[in-house]
Write a structure and sequence with these properties.
Structural class: alpha+beta
Distance between the termini: 37 Å
Largest sheet: 4 strands, mixed
Shape: globular
Strand content: 5-15%
Radius of gyration: 18 Å
Helix content: 40-55%
Order of helices and strands: HEEHHHEEEEHHHEE
Number of helices: 7
Length: about 260
């Protein structure tokens, strides 16, 4: 009989929160095809460029355009938003469910670079560390997750002419999106999820990147991810949390 490891058990629980939270786990062996080291996005500029080019082509095809019609920096920003939303969610979910820190970085995580949906993600088979104080848990998430792998990815994407203001907004949007997804999946955890999001948004890496409503249920970032510029005539729709959106006409933020 195969025994479930602590990391795998955590992955099973957090997957119930939604597709952004679903991950596989792995031991210390080298990745086997089709899995690839996630650190290649940081360490090999050609890999990140290939990913951005793939997203650029996907966005262009959606609008029936040639890839050259979509600005590279737009594709880079959309790539960044997709990556950080996927990578933040598992740790955020574990923090809400268990009050624990699920630690992983680019160096020990793996991915399959699929396009057109959520890419498969595998995290180290590691038992989360309980952290009793919610403020301390948020502080450690901000330092180890937002300042760690998310910060490293943001530095890499910045080389594609994406401003720090936009990258911080993308990360803030991903944090709020994770909280909203938890609240939809498990309404009784909504208060805890929005409280954690508010703490993270008030931490130095993200402070000022967006504003949260007093009741924790509404969020508006102070930048735009630029995805509207990928549509023909740069006239695409706006995400619901976009600084450019007006509440009556904005479509909900996609998650």
């Amino acid at each position: 009989m195969t025994q479930t490891t602590p990391g795998a058990a955590t992955a099973q629980r957090v997957a119930a929160l939604g597709p952004f939270f679903a991950v596989e786990t792995h031991g210390s062996t080298e990745p086997v095809d089709p899995w690839r080291p996630l650190a290649e996005l940081r360490d090999d500029p050609a890999v990140l460029r290939e990913r951005i080019a793939g997203v650029r082509g996907y966005l262009a095809a959606t609008g029936r355009q040639a890839p050259e019609a979509v600005e590279e920096r737009v594709a880079a920003s959309v790539t960044h938003l997709g990556l950080v939303a996927r990578l933040i969610s598992p740790a955020f979910g574990v923090a809400v469910l268990d009050g624990a820190l699920f630690r992983y970085g680019l160096g020990d995580s793996r991915w399959q670079p699929a396009l057109g949906g959520l890419f498969p993600l595998s995290l180290p088979d590691r038992e989360p560390e309980p952290v009793a104080d919610p403020a301390e848990l948020a502080d450690r998430l901000a330092v180890e997750l937002l300042g760690g792998l998310v910060g490293e990815l943001s530095e890499a994407v910045a080389e594609f002419d994406v401003s720090p203001h936009i990258l911080r907004g993308n990360t803030a949007s991903a944090v709020n999106g994770a909280a909203a997804a938890v609240a939809r999946s498990v309404p009784e955890l909504g208060g805890r999820a929005h409280e954690l999001a508010a703490r993270l948004l008030d931490h130095s890496p993200l402070r000022g990147a967006g504003t949260m409503a007093a009741d924790g249920t509404g969020f508006r970032r102070r930048s735009c991810c630029l995805v509207y510029r990928a549509a023909p005539g740069r006239a695409g729709g706006l995400c619901g949390d976009c600084v450019l959106a007006s509440p009556p006409t904005a479509r909900p933020a996609r998650r």
